[in-house]
Amino acid sequence: MKTDNQKAWLLVLPVLVLVAFSAVVPLMTVVNYSVQDTFGNNQFFWAGLAWFDDMLHSERMWNALGRQIVFSSIILAIEVPLGIFIALNMPKKGAWASVCLVLMSLPLLIPWNVVGTIWQIFGRVDIGLLGYTLDALGIDYNYTQGFYAAWTTVIIMDVWHWTSLVALLAYAGLRSIPDAYYQAAKIDQASRWAVFRYIELPKMRGVLTIAILLRFMDSFKIYTEPFVLTGGGPGNATTFLSIDLVQMALGQFDLGPAAAFSLMYFLVIMVISYVFYIVMTNLDKEEQGQ
Length: 290
Known about the structure:
By secondary structure, the protein is mostly helical. It has a single domain, classed as MetI-like (MetI-like fold), CATH 1.10.3720. About 75% of the residues lie in helices and about 0% in strands. The protein has a two-stranded antiparallel ribbon. Helix 3 (about 60-90) packs antiparallel against helix 10 and helix 10 packs antiparallel against helix 13 (about 255-290). It is globular, with a radius of gyration of 24 Å. The relative contact order is 0.13. It comes from Palleronia aestuarii. One of its GO terms (cellular component) is plasma membrane.
C-alpha cells in the first residue's frame, strides 16, 4: 500500500515562519491596538469595537476613501488601455524588441521615493521643465496650490511609473499567441479590430486580470509618491487613505483609531480585489465556453 510522504512540508516551514513574523505577528498587533485604548505608560484598557464605530462615522475617513476610489478608477481607466496599446505597437522580434523591453522596464526600477522627487522637481515653475514650460505658455500651473494641478500631476506621475507594468504583461500575453491564429485570420481577411477582438484580447485575459489586480492594489495603497510630491495637499486634495492613516497613527499618535482604520482599509482592498478576480474569472470562463 502506497503512503504519502509529508516530509516535503518541512521545506515550506522556513517560509511559513518568515511569513508569521513579517505578516501575522504585526497584523495581530494591529488587531490588539484596535480593540484597546491607552493613556500612555503601556497601560491599556478594553475599548471593544468603539474605534471601528468611530471610523465608520468619520467624515474624514469617508472623504479619503472617496478620493482613493476616484484616483484608482482614473488610474485603471488610463493605464490598462494605454498599456495594451503600447504592447500592440511594440516590435515582436529583433533588436528593437529588446530595446523597447529595456526602455519599458526602466520606470519600474526607480524607487518610489525617487519617483516622487523627480516629479516634484519636474513640476516646479522655477527649475522644473514641465512647470517652467507651462508657465511660459501662460498656463496657471502650481501643484502645491492648485487642486486640479495637484491631481493631474499625481495621475500623470503614476501613469508614467506604472503603465510599463501593464504593457509588459500584455506584451507577454501577445507573444504567447501561436502564429497559426494570425495566419487563419489573414486567410479569412479579418480586419485589425477583429483580430484584436477575437484573438488577441481573449488570449490576454489572464495577464490582464493580473495587471488589473496588481494596479488596483498598488494604486489603492499608494503612499510614497504623492506624499513626496504634494504631502497630501493642497489642503487635503491628495490625502489618500494611506496618507491619512499615517497622519493619524504617527502625526496624531491615535493608535486605536489608526489600527481600526488600517484593518478596515485592508478589508476594503481584499473585498474589491476579490470582486475584480471573480468578475474577470467569470468573463474568462464565458469566453472559453463560446
